Amino acid sequence: MNQQVGSHRAGRYVRQPTGYRAFMPAPLPPDPQVALTGELPGLLSQADRALGRLDGSVLTLPNPDLFVFMYVRKEAVLSSQIEGTQSSLQDLLAAEADLFDEAMPRDVDEVVNYVRAMKHGLSRLADLPVSVRLIREIHAQLLDGVRGGRLQPGELRHSQNWIGPAGCTLATASYVPPPHEEVPQALADLERFLHGDDDLPPLVKIALAHVQFETIHPFLDGNGRVGRLLITFLLTECGVLHKPVLYLSHFFRRHRQAYYEHLQAVRDSGDWEAWLGFFLRGVVEVAGEAAETARRIQLLREQHRTAITDRLGRGAGNGHRVLERLFDRPILTVADVRDLTGTTYPAANNLVARLVELGVLVEMTGYARNRRFRYEAYVRLFTDEVPAEGAA
User: Fold this and answer.
1) pLDDT value of position 386
2) Domains and their CATH numbers in the chain
3) Main-chain phi, psi angles of 377, to 5 degrees
4) Which of these is catalytic: 139, 210, 217, 250?
5) Quick one: pLDDT at residue 148?
6) What is the Cα–Cα distance from 319 to 325, expressed in whole angstroms?
């Protein structure tokens, strides 16, 4: 493909009155259309199969919704880390449990907001399709009260933005998105593409849409995180996944430089096919890891249910009740256990002590009072490197 064709396939650079060049994205689908040749048909087939196995793995879990929230949290942490946050999954869980200390990164609120934005978007999908309206709602949730919160949460930008190293200008930026007055039409075109009738496989459509959103860069801050949330919403909306359990940001973070280079190669040379190969390889890899995590959750649950039944005697019923709660909220207090089981505080304290003996709970504060207990083995399933399903 010659440079002239390639450079106009995704859009073109247009010099602005003040001298800098901004990129004007062409509406999707690309012209010429994406060539599903070479390795791409095989990768697409692998990705479809991997997502099917992941969906099946999660749906076979008892009460899948209990476990989904941890997958959501992992995606929130990884996507936020791509943008430079320092908070870990452990920090996020501690913040949710109101367990703050001076060592906790100050940016943990940004990750908390990401989780809130994801949950808001998923609940809205029941009555609102993926659209500009939904994207703006998500953005407002994402930046509410945090770094970037002064940069018009939920509002499309009214000025030019740009991407590049610290201190760069419009003239030296790595990439300059379209001027703000072009953004509403570009987003309207993207929304039309998302819901238009065509023969593109869903994963191809989602991959194209992610790049287009990042290329439009419609907000002053938070574009990367909203664009990755968009992947999750589209996977769920089109029925590729019944539950939002694909933490694709794990792959993007692991290959961060390649991720950004592929996005830019689409703009510069129209190389949609290379991006699509990268995206599909990520889906295959992360879907395998997430399915293996589901398998390990099932084994862990069976192991601890058996231990509780065998060792807690008359307290086994309440022990099982606490165990199920831990899969959704892996940090709790004795007071939480008291409220959950409807027992006295001493009885709840005794139950917690027994669960510590069984290795289900680990005390994490070192305090004599205001103690917090974590379901350590479960949290580790989401913080340790997990090989893809079937890998050694």
Assistant:
1) 57
2) 35-162+174-292 (1.10.3290.10), 297-383 (1.10.10.10)
3) -65, -35
4) 217
5) 57
6) 10
**pLDDT tens digits, residue range 28-73?**
999 999 999 999 999 999 999 999 999 999 888 888 887 888 899 9
**What does the mean pLDDT of the chain come to?**
90
Q: Which residue has the tokens 């949730």?
A: 141
Separation of alpha carbons 98 and 102, rounded Å: 13
Identify the H or E element spanning 274. helix 272-311
Q: Is 217 noted as a catalytic residue in this protein?
A: yes
Interstrand relation of 11-15 and 21-25 (parallel, antiparallel or unpaired): antiparallel
The pLDDT value recorded for residue 102 is 57
The answer, yes or no, to whether residue 259 has pLDDT greater than 70, is: yes
Q: Is 2 within any annotated ligand binding site?
A: no
**What is the pLDDT at residue 318?**
96
Q: Which one, of 59, 160, 61, 75, lies nearest residue 118 by Cα?
A: 75
Q: Return d(Cα 392, Cα 389) in angstroms, integer.
A: 9
For the four alpha carbons of 195, 196, 199 and 204, in that order, the dihedral sign comes to negative
| Residue 226 annotated as lining a ligand binding site | yes
Comparing C-alpha atoms, which of 157, 121, 149 is closest to residue 230?
Answer: 121
Binned at pLDDT 50, 70 and 90, residue 387 comes out as low
In the DSSP assignment, the letter for residue 373 is E
pLDDT at 392: 37
CA distances from 171 to 5, 263, 338 (A): 25, 20, 62
Q: Is 12 helix (H, G, I), strand (E, B) or coil?
A: strand
Q: Has 349 been labeled as part of a binding site?
A: no
**319 is an annotated ligand-binding site residue:** no
Spatial separation of the C-alpha atoms in residues 247 and 244, rounded to whole Å: 8
Q: Answer yes or no: are the C-beta atoms of 363 and 353 closer than 8 Å.
A: no
Is residue 369 within 8 Å of residue 75, measured between CB atoms?
no
